[in-house]
TrEMBL record:
The EC number(s) this enzyme carries: 3.5.1.100
Organism: Pseudoprimorskyibacter insulae
Keyword check for NADP: no
Keywords for the protein's UniProt record, in alphabetical order: Hydrolase
Name assigned to this protein: (R)-stereoselective amidase
Top-level taxon of origin: Bacteria
Keyword Hydrolase: yes
Taxonomic lineage of the native organism: Bacteria, Pseudomonadati, Pseudomonadota, Alphaproteobacteria, Rhodobacterales
Gene name, Swiss-Prot/TrEMBL: ramA
CDD domains: nitrilase_Rim1_like
Family matches, as Pfam families: CN_hydrolase
Length: 295
């Protein structure tokens, strides 16, 4: 059994680096105290690091990208230390990262830390209109599945969760982590529906984290709507709604749930339906359908 904690995370204006250390330590400590073994923070939750360079930088789209990227090495060291100290796995809030091995523009990168000191990274695959048209954030490295001491974990960052073929690429994962950052209820709903759909298709558990609250110091993350959610296929051993746990909309804090891997494996082997197994039967049936005129 794995206890998962997923965050509805408010970003703050940080006056000093120590403020960030204290905040992250408090959040991790609180989740670990519930017995959580895996902690999930949201997409772009690291944008609060831009405030360490001052309000003018945090409020400038281009300058804020560089300000956050410049702090990621230190933030990663902090997350690694917290993962080891509290004996937990942590998906750190994703951040814009300039990586010269990929290109001149930043990628949107999440990092997964293990208590033994290991770290993996996952870049967002498909950019939203804001990311590509206004912010010029680019697609990053390929999807990966992380083999951890808990289970096999895949990560679909926000908009990525809305694309079935990306989910299918991670079909061997038992947990799909979906860190998100959405301005309005409609955006949150799209990602939630995507996370639930990927859980249905892959017969796995999807764990969604959200940014919440207003950030009047940023043009990029000025408004945030969401909550934590843990979703499963509505099948044997899981809730009939597919909702294992949810927080309250726009209420900051952790949402926790226990997940039994045997339940995932049993559903994949002998569920009422076998979406994951029958996926391949779409081949040859997924051509563009002809238009049939009816009079």
């Amino acid at each position: 059994m794995i206890r998962v904690a997923t965050a509805a995370y408010p970003m703050d204006f940080l006056n000093t680096w120590d403020c960030y250390v204290e905040k992250l330590t408090s959040w991790v400590s609180e989740a670990a105290a519930t017995g959580a073994q895996l902690l999930v923070f949201p997409e772009y939750g690291a944008m609060e690091l831009a405030t360490l360079a001052g309000r003018a930088v945090a409020g400038d789209l281009e300058a804020s990208l560089h300000a956050v990227s410049d702090r990621i090495s230190a933030a990663d060291a902090l997350h690694s230390d917290l993962a080891t100290r509290f004996g937990v796995h942590i998906l750190a809030a994703s951040a814009p990262v300039f990586d010269s091995s990929i290109g001149e523009r930043p990628v949107n990168r999440a990092r997964l830390f293990a208590p033994g000191g290991g770290m993996g990274q996952q870049d967002k695959q498909i950019m939203t209109r804001f990311e590509r048209e206004d912010w010029n954030v680019m697609s990053g490295g390929a999807l990966q599945i992380f083999e951890t001491s808990l289970c096999k974990i895949g990560i679909l960052i926000c908009y990525d969760s809305e694309f079935p073929l990306l989910g299918r690429a991670l079909s061997e994962a038992e947990l799909l982590l979906v860190p998100s950052c959405t301005e309005a209820l409609a955006g949150y709903s799209r990602v939630r529906i995507g996370a639930m759909s990927r859980a249905l298709e892959n017969q796995c558990v999807a764990v969604m984290s959200s940014t919440v609250g207003a950030c009047n110091w940023s043009e990029a993350v000025d408004e945030n709507t969401g909550m934590g959610g843990i979703f499963a296929p509505p099948d044997t051993g899981f809730p009939p709604t597919g909702i294992i746990a949810e927080g309250a909309l726009n209420r900051a804090g952790w949402t926790c749930a226990d997940i039994t891997l045997d339940t995932i494996r049993n559903v994949r082997k002998d569920g009422v339906v076998l979406n994951r197994t029958h996926w391949l039967e779409q081949a040859g049936r997924d051509q563009v359908a002809p238009l049939v005129a009816l009079s």
